[in-house]
Sequence to fold (108 residues):
Amino acid sequence: MGATRHRITILDTGEVYTCPDSVSVLKAMAQLGRKGIPSGCHGGGCGVCKVQVVSGEIETLTMSRTHVSEEEERAGFALACRCYPGSDVSLKVVGKMQKAVKRPYGFV
Ligand code: FES
Fold:
């Protein structure tokens, strides 16, 4: 495959992994066995994978306005299961399970 790979940095945990531009940011993390972004439905419906892109470019599929308003989208918020990297990306976890991410062994 000729996919371009980008570096994803999860600022909350310091986790860094590689994500092809054809794979969602959440799926690439899960495929590599990495943790950091909470994972739920993988279909844009639950909102637990919500992140804020701090630097870099992403392409997003349609996202539920229940979880990401237009205003938030313009401010860089996105659902990790619905976004694909267009460059190296740094992001913060902002979804419902954000607190679990920050506990050393609290990720479930
Ligand atoms: S995992 Fe449910 S919205 Fe992304």
Notes: The first helix runs from residue 25 to 31.
